[in-house]
């Protein structure tokens, strides 16, 4: 029952984050769809960590180079997702209000992705590794 509530909360968070992204694109005063390129970062961000978790044996308590590289790549992807709308706004491709909405959506989406890994990332029977 707790997993169902967590899944509902995470899906609501994802929907709210995508709503902010769409508002930054589709409101009549903005009406430019350049910020949708941020969707690629949403898809790419969990990939390095998922690959590293498959390859790394978690029985070792010390740091692992593969896992550290995955965290570094994930951080680069997340920072790029926040930087892209700012670059678009500085280049005057989008308005600053649209940039603020996209940055708000980024915060919500990445918090949702982090929440997914915190809730479903343990090695129990309902782990994401079995999917």
Secondary structure elements and pairings:
Blueprint: H1 2-26, H2 38-44, H3 47-55, H4 65-90, H5 96-120
Helix pairs in contact: 1-5, 2-4, 3-4, 4-5
Number of helices: 5
Report how far the terminal alpha carbons are from each other: 20 Å
Counted up, domains total 1
Helix/strand-derived category reads mainly alpha
Encode the helix/strand succession as letters.
HHHHH
- Globular, elongated, flat, extended or rod-shaped: what is the shape? flat
How many runs of DSSP E, i.e. beta strands? 0
Biggest beta sheet attributes: none
Pfam family, one: Vps55
Family: Belongs to the OB-RGRP/VPS55 family.
Transmembrane segments: 33-56, 68-88, 94-120
Protein name: Leptin receptor overlapping transcript-like 1
Overall description:
- The chain has one domain.
- Helix 2 runs antiparallel to helix 4.
- The mean pLDDT is 89.
- The protein has five helices and no strands.
- Helix content is 70%, strand content 0%.
- By secondary structure, the chain is mainly α.
Could you give a quick summary of the protein structure above?
The protein contains five helices and no strands. It is an all-alpha fold.
Write a concise keyword list for the protein shown above:
Vps55/LEPROT; Leptin receptor overlapping transcript-like 1; transmembrane helix; transmembrane; about 130 residues; membrane
